[in-house]
Amino acid sequence: MSILRTFATDILAFDEQDTINTVADAFLSQAYQQCLSVAVVNAKQQPVGMISRHQLNDIFLKKFGRELFGNRPVKDFMRQDVLSVEVTDSLAEAAAYISKKMRFPLSEDFVITEQGRYLGMGAVLHLLSAMEKQISQSAAELNIAYRQLSSSQAQLVQSEKMAALGQMVAGVAHEINTPLGYVNNNIEMAREFFAQFHYVLQAHEHLAHTLIDPNSRDVDIAESLANLDDAKAGFDSQQWFADLEGLFADTFYGVEQISELVTGLKNFSRLDQAILDNVSLNECIENALLIARNTLKYKVTVLKRLEDVPPIRCAASQINQVLLNLFTNAAQAIKEQGYLLIKSWSDKDFVYVSVQDTGCGIAAEHLAKIFDPFFTTKPVGQGTGLGLSISYKIIQQHQGSIRVASELGKGTRFVIAFPRTLNLSAAA
């Protein structure tokens, strides 16, 4: 079976004659919840265009947009340059084509066809992530060969971090793209508002010039007044400023979201800080949750019970990596909808973090092996088996411990303990 067939989601395409209102209602439904765009097909089920959420927002944000355009057919607004791949194409061919043709900010998915007829929609980020996984799988095989020559732990840690980097970047890119999309749209709307205001202002200036010109005739003044009336037709200054204030508020909110993500990335990597620093585990939890947000948000409800814990001396980027791995594993273990409960607390000797999910659980015969290098219960190509092994080593280096309890069908709980005082000579 073609690998691209696995990307084809069972999404009904829109007919050319479907109205914009019909399309908008579909995008609000559960079936279309994760679609950025959907194909428009003709009677032969051949894709003739695409319509995206971004385009709908642009239509409905216009003044009286729904009333003016809601009953018009989607073919009048669709993008005719279809981002499409044939189901028989290889993963590499499809990824190369999509990478070349996709536009930023990312506002649409791609169409998958079979012999020119619509088969389904595919997510661009899923395709690129699959390509990244192929590369990661090749890298993992090279790492296995390297491990046979050298037991260098540092190389294995870096390999796993790089394997996870693609997934992390894809998730953050998706999170940034959403606010970036409506910031861009709001700026376009503001430009249209100011163009209309400029037209009215010019009419006022022309009238003022006519009034003070000693050579002006009554007919000139009447003409300037008529031009001003035409310019002000349909222009409600009070509503204009109210709409503009709303646009600016939305834009600032979007910029704040982007700033939050960028700050989260910086805090997650801790590139500007010393390797060892006094760090709050609660901050590490928040940073890792921010990076994992795109992985968690569609199916995982995060519950936090974080106590006021003392800071510990640690390499923050490594602790972030451990937590991100546990959060990602929890999301993968939850098949449809579930919960992730995160706790922190302390006693006189240790600071603790508990990560508990309601996922599929781990079989009893596998519990003793989950921290072994290259052990994984995931299908081939979906896991390197290094994540928990590296996490275990990182926790050991910080003189901590990690325990796991699990039950099939009910979930898994990891408890990590870090000493409140780190023995630097032992850590070295």
UniProtKB/TrEMBL annotation:
Reactions that this protein is recorded to catalyse: ATP + protein L-histidine = ADP + protein N-phospho-L-histidine
Enzyme class: transferase
Domain Histidine kinase: residue ranges: 171-422
InterPro entries: CBS_dom, CBS_dom_sf, HATPase_C_sf, HATPase_dom, His_kinase_dom, HisK_dim/P_dom, HisK_dim/P_sf, Sig_transdc_His_kin-like_C
Signal peptide residue numbers: none
Gene3D superfamilies: 1.10.287.130, CBS-domain, Histidine kinase-like ATPase, C-terminal domain
Entry keywords, A to Z: Phosphoprotein
Enzyme Commission number(s) from the entry: 2.7.13.3
Highest taxon of source: Bacteria
Single annotated GO MF: phosphorelay sensor kinase activity
UniProt protein name: histidine kinase
